[in-house]
Amino acid sequence: MNALHERLLMGAAAPDEPVTLAMAGVISLREHRLPVYRAPIVGLNGPEFRRLLRRFFPALDKAQAAAWLPLDSYPAYTPTVGDEFPDLLELLLEHSRFSGEEARWLAHTIATGCMGRNHLWQDLGLLDRGMLSELLGEHFTTLFLRNVGDMKWKKFFYKQLCGKAGIDLCRAPSCGVCSDYRHCFSHEPGQPLLVAADKVWEWRNAHG
Ligand code: SF4
Q1: What is the spatial distance between Cα 28 and Cα 25, in angstroms, rounded to a whole number?
Q2: Alpha-carbon distance 98 to 198, whole Å?
Q3: How many Cα atoms sit within 13 Å of 39 on the Cβ side?
Q4: C-alpha–C-alpha distance, residues 164 and 159, integer Å
Q5: CA 62 – ligand 1 centroid, Å
Q6: pLDDT of 159-206, one tens digit each?
Q7: In the chain, which end has fewer C-beta atoms inside a 10 angstrom radius, N or C?
């Protein structure tokens, strides 16, 4: 748990919900991303981000959060040549099961997590891969169901983008005979980058 993550979850309406954890995760892990993706949630503007904080983290101490978050000068994001963020966002929005502002915020959250260097579930600050699969199954159901082989989630998203663009970068005719199989499919093992939700509850109880 880093200090910002701690503050966010202390102020969250539902700190053990996967959507809330993912939002808190990408906001808290912004320094882990390349500078161009260091907005707390890439592609949202300042007023949208403040609305998101009010909705999901209503008891957040704004004065303390301001020490870590660019609340007054939210960094603008401008796509550059070869930047895949807009395509990932479009893919997620196309498959969003729900409409409205919160669904869009979640798509931005997942796309922002894709800009990290670890497994997607880790860069979203989730507890394990199962939590990510659960979140995708609920909120991006049609996309989730397409991943019939249970490919690594980032690899799967990028393969979808290649498919949309009519590009096939795979060296083998099928996954079953491909020497890269292990790079594309695994249970994405690892440790969470941020604290487990049960520890958050313990912390909240201990600190009132
Ligand atoms: S396992 Fe090989 S064929 Fe399958 S998606 Fe990966 S690179 Fe492509």
Answers
A1: 5
A2: 28
A3: 23
A4: 9
A5: 46
A6: 999 888 888 878 787 887 888 888 888 889 998 888 655 566 565 566
A7: C
* Each residue's pLDDT tens digit, 63-94: 877 778 887 788 888 888 889 999 999 999 99
Whether pTM > 0.70 for this model: the answer is yes
Q: Which of 147, 184, 185, 186 to mutate to test the pocket of ligand 1 (most atoms within 8 A of CB)?
A: 184
The structure tokens 């313990």 sit at 202
Would the CB of 186 count as within 6 Å of ligand 1? Answer: no
List strand residue ranges (DSSP E) for 113-185, in order: none
User: What are the angstrom distances between the C-alpha of 130 and each of 5, 17, 89, 157, 202?
Assistant: 21, 13, 22, 17, 22
Cα gap 35→39, rounded to integer Å: 8
Sign of CA dihedral 71, 23, 112, 95: negative
Residue 181 Cβ inside 6 Å of ligand 1? The answer reads yes
CA angle 163, 176, 160 (to 5 degrees): 15
CA of 26 to the centre of ligand 1 (A): 28
Helix axes 3-10, 197-206, angle to 10 degrees: 70
Closest residue to atom 7 of ligand 1, CA basis: 170
